[in-house]
Amino acid sequence: xxxxxxxxxxxxxxxxxxxxxxxxxxxxxxxxxxxxxxxxxxxxxxxxxxxxxxxxxxxxxxxxxxxxxxxxxxxxxxxxxxxxxxxxxxxxxxxxxxxxxxxxxxxxxxxxxxxxxxxxxxxxxxxxxxxxxxxxxxxxxxxxxxxxxxxxxxxxxxxxxxxxxxxxxxxxxxxxxxxxxxxxxxxxxxxxxxxxxxxxxxxxxxxxxxxxxxxxxxxxxxxxxxxxxxxxxxxxxxxxxxxxxxxxxxxxxxxxxxxxxxxxxxxxxxxxxxxxxxxxxxxxxxxxxxxxxxxxxxxxxxxxxxxxxxxxxxxxxxxxxxxxxxxxxxxxxxxxxxxxxxxxxxxxxxxxxxxxxxxxxxxxxxxxxxxxxxxxxxxxxxxxxxxxxxxxxxxxxxxxxxxxxxxxxxxxxxxxxxxxxxxxxxxxxxxxxxxxxxxxxxxxxxxxxxxxxxxxxxxxxxxxxxxxxxxxxxxxxxxxxxx
Amino acid sequence: xxxxxxxxxxxxxxxxxxxxxxxxxxxxxxxxxxxxxxxxxxxxxxxxxxxxxxxxxxxxxxxxxxxxxxxxxxxxxxxxxxxxxxxxxxxxxxxxxxxxxxxxxxxxxxxxxxxxxxxxxxxxxxxxxxxxxxxxxxxxxxxxxxxxxxxxxxxxxxxxxxxxxxxxxxxxxxxxxxxxxxxxxxxxxxxxxxxxxxxxxxxxxxxxxxxxxxxxxxxxxxxxxxxxxxxxxxxxxxxxxxxxxxxxxxxxxxxxxxxxxxxxxxxxxxxxxxxxxxx
Lengths: 483, 279
Hints:
The structure holds two protein chains of two kinds.
Chain A: H1 14-22, H2 25-45, H3 49-68, H4 70-83, E1 86-91, H5 94-107, E2 112-115, H6 119-124, H7 126-132, E3 136-139, H8 142-149, H9 166-177, H10 185-202, E4 205-208, E5 212-214, E6 219-224, H11 228-234, E7 238-244, E8 248-249, H12 252-267, E9 274-278, E10 292-298, H13 302-306, H14 322-325, H15 328-333, H16 344-355, H17 372-376, H18 383-394, H19 413-427, H20 429-441, H21 453-456, H22 467-477
Parallel strand pairs in A: 1-10, 2-3, 2-4, 4-7, 5-8, 7-10
Antiparallel strand pairs in A: 5-6, 6-9
Helix pairs in contact in A: 2-12, 3-12, 16-18, 19-20
Chain B: E1 31-34, H1 38-43, H2 45-57, E2 61-63, H3 73-78, H4 81-98, E3 102-104, H5 107-120, H6 125-136, E4 138-140, H7 141-148, E5 160-165, H8 168-172, H9 179-185, E6 190-193, H10 208-211, H11 213-229, E7 234-237, H12 240-252, E8 259-261, H13 262-271
Parallel strand pairs in B: 1-2, 1-3, 3-4, 5-6, 5-7, 7-8
Helix pairs in contact in B: 2-13, 5-6, 7-9, 11-12
């Protein structure tokens, strides 16, 4: 198949993309139905609220504890993995990471790569990088396979092709693979599997992500439901795992509650069909497994988030996707609207550290701060609080030193003066009351158009009398006594 | 397009009764301060007045300091911390003068006092003590009526069927999303019906509604559609912001369905007639 995967051509700004997505009834229905189903599944997976809250608290403590000694744990992880025969590589940027991966493949004279689902490899745009160097990189996760086939990007971190329904997938398979059209999901899965099976056997290198890297034992844990992760990490002679530095946890026992939180929050499963614990290449007396195992640990802005005590909480994320499943904005606009690798609430707080806030200046505002995301986050990332913080960083004076990469992109002198005026109005009681008096007296003069507000609402008309006025009269009449 | 959403699991986001530890409530005080909120002040003053009447009916004297303005939330959620803090400080000064319990007829402004002032003043230890004290004595109207006044409502209205919209702040910050339900349950002639995606945000989000009008507009359209499809004749809510958003959208869509503030609804039900706007 063609390996050049163009970046989906997108309208340049969030609002424009949102408008397009909102006008697409099919897309909106696909998301609404899928997200409703995922919310129900999660709710059913946590029937006991006390148990759920206890587990979330524990998950938060494990991740926060691990992050508090991140440098030590990473060193320990490297040491243990090396002892186990895994080669550890460090990459500060995606360019470095891609270079490392390419180098490993080249050393084996590899030309075919099969990949298990990995969001970090999406971050790296590894497929494109390798394709440009003549290496075919095939996605083996069903959802990833579908979006790759359609030259798209994932629209959800757990379910990459969730924006498509069975009919759309059927048409895609028909157009690209010449398969007969069918809306039978099992049949569609069978078509994908047939192609992928052969590729697993032919591949020179398997690439995967990592869900948790255990420092104590040097174990890479990978959860999945399709078996493609196990195939990608065991069938080819070389396995390259790529992951972010925040995935390290101290001990194997920490993984138990985290996996439970992950699988229940993501798909409502008690546990995934496959749980892979990878602890090194094939040993001399073993019959199968890869000859080489590599781990590429990627920073890509994570240390920037790490350096800020509040923003560090972003790195708690275990990539379950529950925040997007419960987000009323994501549900309506879908993942592609965000225009970045990580969509939804988690994407809004993590992307600024990777790409810079100036690259995604509208993201922090694309939230009603309803709080659903923070409510369901299995590791208790206070997402609304962090969005609020990013809004502050967004409007900072760009001339001043910035605390978040690309801060100050939304700075506007005019807006700053408007808020100064608002402050004056609300801190000077006489002024505020004069404003109330004028607004209520001249209510008929209220403008019929009030900027974007009147796109969705009738023009707001002040009441005849303010509450200040009504309350003063009322309390005067009865002398402040209860009536 | 809205009919598309009706294939969906209708109550995937149904109100969940399990929300953290119950707040400890004091005995009913002799007097309280009503913090009117800027939205109620200018656009829904009758709701504020009805809140005063409901409190007075419980034998509670109500103070309304004329110096009060806004809790500071609009600037805070827009990223203007200094401006929000200045306004917050002004309200603290006013509310601390009497030190009375503060009753707020809007979940999000009550949430501002109870949760966000802590963050605003995190770098000022002296202020933090005052902020903590304010948080402790701030109550959303429905929780004050139900939990502190232990109100008993005798319904004198005609049979009616209504939908209840609970704000995200009531649900997630104030933990008061079930209090309005309990109050409505006391009204014999009132049947409360569920609506589709009841616990989902109405799309207001303060400045979100003007910064992202496309997305916000889609959210409020879905909300109004599900309210109208619920079989209710009207909607009640204890949050001024949501109410302005939902009613503004209904009016723009030229629908006759409307929402009302819970305070006005309750006052009318127990008096058998509309309290109306005092002109």
